[in-house]
Amino acid sequence: MRLLGKLGFAVAACLFGANVAAADTVVKWLHIEVNPAQVKIWEEVARSYEASHPGVKVEMQFLENEAYKAKLPTILQSKDRPNIIYSWAGGVLKTQIEAGVLEDITDSVKSGGYSDTIAPAALAAFTQNGRVYGLPIALSQVGFLYNKDLMAKGHVDASKIKTWDDLLGAVKTLKAAGVTPIVVGGADKWPLHFYWTHLAVRIGGKPAFDAALKGENGGFAGETFQKSGELFKQLVDLQPFQNGFLGSKNPQAVGYFGDGKAAMILAISSFYHTQRALAADKVGLSDDKLGWFDFPVVPGGKGEPSDTLGGITGWLVTKDSPKEAVDFLKYFISKDVQARLAAGNFIVPVVKGGEAGLKSDFMKQIAANLAKSNYHQNFYDQSLGPSVGRVVNDVSAEIAGGSMSPQDAAKAIEAAYKQGN
Amino acid sequence: MAIASPINVAGEAAPQALRGPGWDGRFTVLILFLPPALLLFTLFVVLPIGEAAWYSGFNWNGFGRPTQWIGFDNYRFVLETRAFWLALRNNGLIIAVSLAIQLPLALTLALMLAEKFRGAVALRMLFFMPYILAEIATGLIFSFVYDGDYGLVASIWRFFGAEPPYLLASTDTAMLAVLIVIVWKYFGFHMMLFIAALQSLDKSLVEAARIDGATRSQTLRHVVIPLLYPTIRLSVFFAIVGSLQLFDLVMPLTRGGPADSSNTMVSFLYNNGISRMRVGYGSAIGVILFAICVTFAFTYKRWFMRDE
């Protein structure tokens, strides 16, 4: 009887609770973050927002990266779409804006001088024709993370790797010493496209990319892009990667690096953090064993050595969302929260003053690199949209696997670009 | 008039339509039962296929309504893609392996296990087990088995003192590795079909053959297997249609890679149509695949399964 009473009470509580929830404004927030430590901070931020804004409920939903990308068009066109979604800016964002599924949040972002608190380049990535459709959360840089012990074992001075030939030389020396030079998650393809893309950034710089977008100089089949394939092939021919690299996924590869089994990894700056979680012992390489050098320059290349390749990630608000969604985003992307995320080494902040939270020297260095970069190229596979970007990933993997020539690779991208536009 | 219905006994006339088995009766059945079936069929079969065919004429990324009509260009793009032909070839390989290795293996095991002996049931369950396992789980398990660093295959290689291969990471071996998993996963299903057929065989025919002095292999060849033909035909049908639809084993194993070497038609559709948001292009692949399946199904039914 007592049990029944308890049950009845529980049911009543549930019903009552459900009623209260229904009366609230619910902000549905869809994310793809797999790092539990970071999600925990997000949760806490959401709860503290709820505490200071009675009547608003922030609901977090999760989808895995690839599933998210595949489902997004459908999700966005459903009536029950989430209010806040994750974005890598670039071509996908452009498509979404053109389809009219996003909310123009320009007015509320500009009000009260809020937009001035954000790094202009980062905000620009979410702006089109002067209208703002989202807010950036983090920047990242692509470069080489290395294992100091293994570099020493292979008698390579990483601080001297400045040019592409230096890198090729280091690979040869490491191989001769019996050290696996580089690890890469080739099955995911995009880690391989970093090589191809970053070489293009070094060889042609911003002018080459802009020209290719306009179809000038042979577009993506032009000289710059053929050359980046050729230089990439020089590296591939040295067999620098771990055995079976075309079958490993990125998390495996990052874990392999964290286990201390390879000297280098061409990494997004956030791998600095994820290699710990993905290593077999969940500890990974400690700070004193980790080093970083920027992507080598190509002699005669038109790109500046300070140019960077990386990501600009952020949040979008979907059409017909309650105004609380934007309000929460502004709360989320504020100096305090950014400083907190920066302190956990999760992000390079985009809000001015947020970098005060940066604790590790490594993250400070990345932030400094990004600050002095005049040309930050968003990942090609995001920047060019899914239909062309994935072809860039494909051909990078094919060059790495030896099944496609650099010339054919460049032509394939140009063909996809023409088809997609 | 002795078979008059109770209604007639009661002196009332039966309604026209219920009176007899002639045209009127069939017409009533048609009126009553056709519309729901037709409606469901239209709603769940004809419309989606028609929609896919319609979308395949557009250059469309899945947002809003398709507007850019490009006619048959998507089909041309598909047919010009090397990866499509690779995928088609792989589907052909899967069918070949299913017919040449999987079904004979299943039949042999069925002939051994259909008889009653100690442990027969346990062995049957053991062989059937892979079929029960979800495809995605099978794929994940085998991606570990094939792993060149920690996998079972690697340890076997190391045992013999050789450098282990990375089967899923090479364009030469990835498809082979997938084929092995396919055989492992589905032979149990066909074995069960054969066992069921064997157990319902008319035993007297086998006995008659024995009494006439036929040897074991003669009985098998001239009596048992011919009696199994209907089941074999069904098995072949399942094997081929299943091979054409294969997707969920490939994704966790190789995702169609490296360099598209292990794509099937469906994983090719997914990788190119869905992941790249080229819905028109994907629809074109879907329509081609549908055409192949339908052509096969009708031809096969017409030629081989006419009596059933």
UniProtKB/TrEMBL annotation, chain A:
UniProt keyword NAD, yes or no: no
A GO BP entry: transmembrane transport
Domain of life, source organism: Bacteria
Cellular compartments annotated: Periplasm
Signal sequence annotation: 1-23
Signal is among the record's keywords: yes
PROSITE patterns named in the record: SBP_BACTERIAL_1 (PS01037)
Keywords attached to this entry: Periplasm, Signal, Transport
InterPro entries on file: Bact_solute-bd_prot1, SBP, SBP_1_CS
GO cellular component terms, semicolon-separated: periplasmic space
PANTHER family recorded: ARABINOSE-BINDING PROTEIN-RELATED (PTHR43649), BLR3389 PROTEIN (PTHR43649:SF14)
Family: Belongs to the bacterial solute-binding protein 1 family.
Official protein name in the record: Carbohydrate ABC transporter substrate-binding protein
